[in-house]
Amino acid sequence: MKNIIADRTSKIDASGIRKVFALAASLKNPVNFSIGQPDFDVPDKLKNEAIKAIQAGYNKYSQTAGDEILKGKITEQVRGEFGWENPAVLVSSGVSGGLLLAFLALVNPGDEVIIPDPYFVIYKHVINMLGGKCVFVDGYPDFCLPVDKIADAITDKTKIIILNSPCNPTGVVNTEQEIKELARIAAEKDVLVLTDEIYEKFCYDMDCPSIAGYYEKTLLMRGFSKAYAMTGWRLGYVAASESLKDIIEQMTKIQQYTFVCAPVPFQQAAIAAMDYDVSDFVDIYRQKRDLLYNGLKDKFELIKPGGAFYAFVKAPEGTTATEFVEKAIANNLLIIPGNVFSEKDTHFRISYATSDEKIRQGVDILCSLI
Ligand code: PMP
């Protein structure tokens, strides 16, 4: 069969990450610093809510935009937090689902999307697949929000500025001052901001400020995957002020013909999750962050992560991240090279969402390689 595969698939390059996993397949019981999900399980209370929902018959489609009660809870949350009177809300199949719908609804071929580099992988590949143009703005070496560079990158073709705080892969949390400054610039140029706040609960040193509190034309994405360790339940939400309700309506229309709705029994569990306190988990993860950071800071160049469960560490002088990762894997440690999340190949990502014992082992291996 000739040309069976659509051209757009060639816009996605998953070779970097595939190479790591191929190398990793040969390892027995490695120290795995590559996993992007919490090492705890869904809290029992929330598991029971999902079981109860299945038994009570919540097994059919919901409304496309989500269960009314869940949408009501989300509305209450964002109204309280950002003062949005009549927010538009869509429950999505994870934040990934929300991102796909947003890009499908917004990005025409040739449209530019500004993305601070390093970035979460999905943005680049989906935007490329749609014929959009990713405009990367260099956030090295401190990974603070490069506000001035973002301002310089805005053109007539700019459709969206993407923010991700706390950030995957750097763990950096944007400060209130950076966010306010970006809000001012976005308002001046009248550009939409998409803020991916999937790690908002994992903030260790301060509250995570959201640009949604400072800029009305913000598309807010949050999820249930990370905070409640339910990555397999595929739940997230998109919310925006009334001024962006057309965008949410178009995304809902696309959801109708793609995902149809987010998984229904888990939407019921998400209603309970909205009131579930995860601060104990966050305290444990703060300690893991400290364990990792204190173990590496004297030997490696790294910024202390303020949130999420990642650290983005500079590979030793004279080696690319890819070379260093190969060396680490040969020593039974799994890490991800920075070029999976960046246009550069100078750093590697650590996920410390693992046991303290594994963190100590991983730190020892890394320190032995330098
Ligand atoms: N955004 C970021 C920054 C992420 O790290 C992830 C998960 N790795 C997602 C979105 C997608 O999460 P989910 O689809 O499980 O909600």
Strand content: 15-25%
Q: What is the chain-wise order of helices and strands?
A: HEHHEHEHEHEHEEEHHHEHEEEH
Rounded to an integer in angstroms, the radius of gyration calculated over CA atoms is 20 Å
Distance between the termini: 50 Å
Structural class: alpha/beta
Mean pLDDT: 96
Described by strand count, sense and barrel closure, the largest sheet is: 7 strands, mixed
Please tally the β strands and state the result: 12
Q: What are the low-pLDDT stretches, counting only 5+ consecutive residues below 50?
A: none
Quaternary structure state of the chains depicted:
single chain
- Spell out which ligands are present: 4'-deoxy-4'-aminopyridoxal-5'-phosphate
Number of helices: 12
**Strand order of the biggest β-sheet:** 2-8-7-6-5-3-4
Inertia-based shape: globular
Tell me the helix content: 25-40%
Descriptive tags:
370 residues; alpha/beta; 7-stranded mixed β-sheet; 12 helices; binds 4'-deoxy-4'-aminopyridoxal-5'-phosphate
Would you give an account of this structure?
By secondary structure, this protein is α/β, with parallel strands linked by helices. Helix content is 39%, strand content 15%. The chain is built from twelve helices and twelve strands. It has helices spanning 15-24, 44-55, 68-82, 94-106, 121-129, 147-153, 176-189, 245-256, 264-273, 279-296, 321-330, 356-368, and strands at residues 31-32, 88-92, 112-117, 133-138, 158-164, 192-196, 218-223, 236-240, 310-314, 333-334, 336-337, 347-351. The strands form three sheets. The protein has a seven-stranded mixed sheet with strand order 2-8-7-6-5-3-4, sandwiched between helices. The chain has a three-stranded antiparallel sheet with strand order 9-12-11. A two-stranded parallel sheet has the order 1-10. The N and C termini lie far apart (50 Å). The mean pLDDT is 96. Residues 36, 94-96, 120, 164, 168, 196, 198, 223, 225, 231, 236 line the site of 4'-deoxy-4'-aminopyridoxal-5'-phosphate.
